[in-house]
Amino acid sequence: MTELPERPAETVAPKYDFAHAEPAWQAAWDKAGCFTAVDVPTGDKPKYYVLEMFPYPSGKIHMGHVRNYTLGDVVARYKRARGFDVLHPMGWDAFGLPAENAARQRKTDPASWTYENIATMRGELKRMGLSLDWSREFATCDPEYYGQQQQLFLDFWAAGLVERKQSAVNWDPVDNTVLANEQVIDGRGWLSGALVERKILSQWFLKITDFAPDLLAGLADLPRWPERVKLMQENWIGRSEGAEVTFPLVGADAGITVYTTRPDTLFGMSFLAIAPEHPVARTLAESNAAVAAFVADCASQGTSEAAIETAEKKGFDTGLKVVNPFNGETFPVWIANFVLMEYGTGAIFGCPCGDQRDLDFARKYNLPVPVVVSPTAGEVPEIGNKALDGDGFIVNSGFLDGMTTKAAKGAAIAKLEELGAGKSVVNWRLRDWGISRQRYWGCPIPVIHCAACGPVAETKLPLVLPKDVSFDKPGNPLDHHPHWKHVTCPKCGGKATRETDTFDTFIDSSWYFARFTAPKSATPTNMAAVNHWLPVDQYVGGIEHAILHLLYARFFTRAMRQTGHLAVGEPFAGLFTQGMVTHESYKDADGNWLYPEEVTKHADGRATTEDGREVTVGRIEKMSKSKRNTVDPGVIIERFGADAARWFVLSDNPPERDVEWTETGAQGAFRFVQRLYRIAETIAGEPKVAMPAVFEGEAKKLRQLTHRSIAAVTEALETFAFNVAVARAYELLGALVGDRPADAALLWARREAIEILARLVSPMIPHVAEAANMLLNPGAALVAMQPWPEPEPALLVKDELTVAVQVNGKLKGTITIAAGTDAAVAVAIAKAAVAGALKGQTIVKEIYVAGRIVNFVVKP
RNA sequence: GCGGGUGUGGCGGAAUGGUAGACGCACCGGACUUAAAAUCCGUUGGGCCCUAGGCCCGUGGGGGUUCAACUCCCCCCACCCGCACCA
Questions:
Q1: Residue A614 pairs with which residues in a beta bridge?
Q2: What pLDDT is recorded for position A613?
Q3: Measured between alpha carbons, how far is A277 from A303 in angstroms, rounded to an integer?
Q4: Nucleotide with the nearest C1' to A140 CA
């Protein structure tokens, strides 16, 4: 048994000394090896894999991490108590842009910066008392990890899941470097301030679209994922049924093919629009300066979809004409900035009456707006500035007239096929995953470019990043390196160059959960381990990853299965998405952001700086360094303890919602921890009596509350309603304050209650739970190794019921009846109780919902 | 622009279609103390008649379904998140 340090003698009031106790209990768990899992277990316990999204080592942990890892830890500890063999690992998502930025600013190198941050953050996480198996820790920037990742890539390549094609990037023409979307501020490079251009590069892609149908279908097999996340994924994958229609160009042999989900509105065509990157636009630009200028203008928009779709609609009439196969009329071909090259064919036919964007465009350029859809059959509505994009009936459309829009889609496609002008097509919004990044601090792409052989796989893995790089000039240091990229071709032995791009860091996080099952394996995975532990039973992380990370991980799992690296279908069987941690933000009179500790709040609601300058209290928003509204968990843990910090992030708010960090909330959590310990200490000092044969009165009530609490906390933990579990703990503890009872039965019931309470809160505040347990039962096993308490069914049964009595649905009073009383009796008592309200009324109907409510429907 | 979400007292929130506001915070009152802190006890949605007690209103707004709606349906408003090179 662990010896706790003695409480300092000068402390007058008994006080739980978390600063000494918490590290001592952490050492005790370590020594007992409570949290270590084996790669391939031989026992017969059921497995449970709990995983939280691993952190980026940015410097220090933040409150979002505290929340995320506490949530996961509650699950891990609870499942362990329920008899599961739990795997709960931790690692570091260590590649990424911030390390390069730090390297540029601080003249350090990304590797040392990253590993120093990891050391700091590991210490902070350990101080939280998380039940992690630290023996499995790795960072994605460890060559042992990314070398295996390079192997996976080569296997994917051999399996045909990789291809090279062109794609657009944000280009800073001053710094001559590729910019990430977040480095583009209002269309300008964040450092140079230069207007950003779109530039086309040849890049590597993973063929995630090959799996689009399966990624969509697989969502149906994920009952323990939030509906909204599945819905977002479904929309992102974006299966749509429509048609490809080819419009012949007037005076040419060629045509332009568009994809449309609304072939029913083809008679409502007003124009045809193509993306600025469309081959037709590019060809025109070569010989036409005006076209070239317009295309260049569109290229200054940035590459993000939001930027493209919210920009003011702009178009350029190319002078080209196309023919509508349905009515033979000719229409102009425009280049339009809101048409996305990545979706469909990069060309649309414009039907202003049925599509808002087309209508906005038509109004701006005075194009006709033929009306072909009507909400009511047979009528032709007026179109103002609002398109009729819902379902309805087709009008003014020849052979489609009178059909519903739905029926007309089928009829139009059949006609297109008959005319040889188009065909039915299933289209996906999902695009192939571009994985090339022109950066240093990432996993090197293990490919060598040979003039004779083309791209060739690197044979010596891991292909390690060179350390002697310079960040003195913009662009990719790997590309500037004096000799790293100059190699010989592994195939022909001729001169060749290395690929200097690195992988998108999303790749690193797309399979780490698999690597955790056997982190030292000489191959990417150990089949026995990975197939035993996967899928992750409970994954916990931020809602901001609802689409990309989760989709990429689901894709990787499929690609790894296809290449023989694992045998499961889905990576995460259960998913929980937590909300953000927020805080008030503060600004001084000059508009500078202030840290919370720089602000003093006054009783009258005013806020000032220490030297009395006025402070504006801003919105409550996501904690971020730039707004300075952060609270350092390290400071909080030092002041209040790990348990208090954990209790706070679990209290009050449902975990899926945002939580606002408040000082008073933290103090409240601290008080609870202290109070729990104090009451445990009091009860431990009371006489230990034998279990009485009968419990009556207060003692029985307390036992009922204790066992109802077991049931309630258990249910709350099972459903991630941790705030409700916290409330139930407060309730039970509240029943234990007060003086030592004289009654032996009550003494026994009190001791039972506090012992059970310590175990019920142990997944949430494990340190003080151990401390209380030791006080009450010196020499007992660690709470971390004890099974979960079971309620006694007899104590969950209520012997009397409170029933609400309503007249016409309005509450008039309550009655208490013995359990098992039949409906007639209950109604009769209820009637007597509200006799006044029923006087002079005729009872039309009596409703009795057993044990809950009686409702009299009356009329005068 | 597209996609997803949220909205309940002074605040965070609770509530299988069945007593709205559990539990916490804050506030106020009381006990203890030389005092403070800590601790313990108690009150607190709004309005009205008023002292017993009772009545009315109340879950972003407006409709609807139902004996009964925070909960289900329709419309609207406000705010938040994501949009493929931030992680």
A1: A608
A2: 66
A3: 12
A4: B87
pLDDT by residue (tens digit) across A776-814? 999 889 999 999 999 999 998 888 888 888 888 888 888
Q: Is the CB of A95 under 7 A from strand B?
A: yes
What is the model's pTM? 0.90
| Residue count (chain A) | 860
Rounded CA separation A339/A353 (Å): 18
A125 with A57: CB under 8 angstroms?
no
Q: Is the CB of A654 under 7 A from strand B?
A: yes
ipTM: 0.90
CB A673 within 7 Å, strand B: no
Is there a contact between A541 and A550 (Cβ–Cβ < 8 Å)? no
Token pair in block for residue A800? 């009397």
Tokens of A818: 């013995």
**Å between A141 CA and B73 C1'?**
53
Query: What is the Cβ-side half-sphere exposure of residue A290, based on CA atoms within 13 angstroms?
Result: 7
* A444-468 confidence digits (pLDDT tens): 999 999 999 999 999 999 999 999 8
A210: number of Cβ within 10 Å: 16
Strand B contact nucleotides, protein CB < 7 Å: 1-6, 12-16, 18-20, 22-26, 37-41, 54-56, 67-69, 80-87
- Distance of CA A717 to CAs A76, A554, A762, Å? 11, 27, 12
Per the CB < 8 A criterion, the answer to whether A581 and A544 are in contact is no
Of A337, A256, A334, A260, give the one whose Cα is nearest residue A296.
A337
Regions in chain A scoring below 70 on pLDDT: 1-14, 582-630
Whose C1' is closest to the CA of A169: which nucleotide? B85
Kindly report the three-state secondary structure assignment for every residue of A69-80: HHHHHHHHHHHH
The whole-number Å distance from A660's CA to B6's C1' is 15
pLDDT of residue A8: 34
- Determine whether the distance from the CB of A597 to the nearest atom of strand B is below 7 Å: no
